[in-house]
Design a protein that fits this description.
The structure is a homodimer of 152-residue chains. The first copy, chain A, is mainly α. Chain A has helices at 10-31, 38-49, 55-62, 66-78, 101-122, 127-145, and strands at residues 82-89, 92-99. The first copy, chain A, has a two-stranded antiparallel ribbon. Chain B binds a DNA duplex (30 and 30 nucleotides) through helix 4 and strand 2.
DNA sequence: ATAGTATTGTTGTAAATGCAACAAATTTTT
DNA sequence: AAAAATTTGTTGCATTTACAACAATACTAT
């Protein structure tokens, strides 16, 4: 049986695609002179969706460890886009957070700029195509996740 | 129109999948006590495929910049798995490389161990499913690549 | 009740990564 | 022929990242 080389594997394609997207995001954020980083943007968006989320839950979602999630939040707090407060979850003290008014505006603004900049990209793929691709990837990932010992 | 949040985007799924795969690879390599890193493994595999490849071309393929590609090769050379030599490409001096005998054996050995460890994973997806997913991702990536200014 | 275990967040540190600057050589332009 | 630009690889540095250790608190078990 012929060996499947690294460059021929699905692993490679996904890594490559992820890297291209990350670079693209970085370039956009630089070019558009946004005052948050892509990671901070993701965090803001997630916080807007899960209002009052705690740090660890956020960490799981944005795919960072707790340490780095804390650092991203430090930055967002310093910029005045979120505020943190102590609360309990399952009888445990946790730091929860929510967007400030400025944070909400920043998010909206960033969304708008990105959307404008990306409008050309969206013509080429139908909603349906994207959705199908997404479903396949999720199925694929959910499977390999079973093999993984995740500690966040 | 409803806003698509970060966690609902294809961007997120691909990033997440890439991260899961990277973690999984790291765990496997640790657990199996391999004496190369996942990145070094990718490099070895690519070098075995493109015998005599030069550093920059390798960099493009393994998705690292030239600096880090050089560092990975330093490590592989120190371990005796590759040898580098100066040659020309388009009339320019470049450093090309090829596997040593030990490098070839190391690659074969690593392949074997990984294959054994992954055999359970492959049952769940048919070749066809993987191929279709791969095609979709490639198409998707090729499109967003057009938006990107890549400098390697 | 006391000891052990688990959860959450922070800090420190080492490794990985990207980027800019550089050297050396070659090609292109003027 | 000289100057400018390009290609390739290396070095240094700043940023990102992961991981381990820790503190504080709460839960669980004996």
């Amino acid at each position: 049986m012929k060996k499947i080389h690294y460059t021929e594997s699905i692993h490679y394609e996904i890594e490559k695609t992820a890297r291209v997207m990350k670079l693209l995001a970085a370039q956009f954020f630089t070019k558009l002179n946004l005052n948050i980083t892509p990671d901070e943007y993701s965090a803001l968006d997630v916080i807007s969706y899960y209002n009052g989320i705690c740090q660890r839950d956020l960490a799981k979602i944005i795919l960072k460890d707790r340490a780095n999630t804390g650092r991203i939040l430090n930055s967002l707090e310093k910029k005045g886009f979120i505020k943190r407060f102590v609360d309990t979850k399952n009888n445990r003290l946790v730091r929860k957070m929510q967007l400030t008014k400025e944070g909400g505006e920043e998010l909206k603004n960033t969304d708008l700029k990105l959307k404008k900049h990306l409008s050309s990209a969206q013509k080429f793929f139908s909603h349906e195509e994207i959705e199908n691709l997404q479903k396949s990837i999720i199925k694929f990932r959910e499977h390999i996740e079973k093999l993984l010992e995740l500690n966040i």
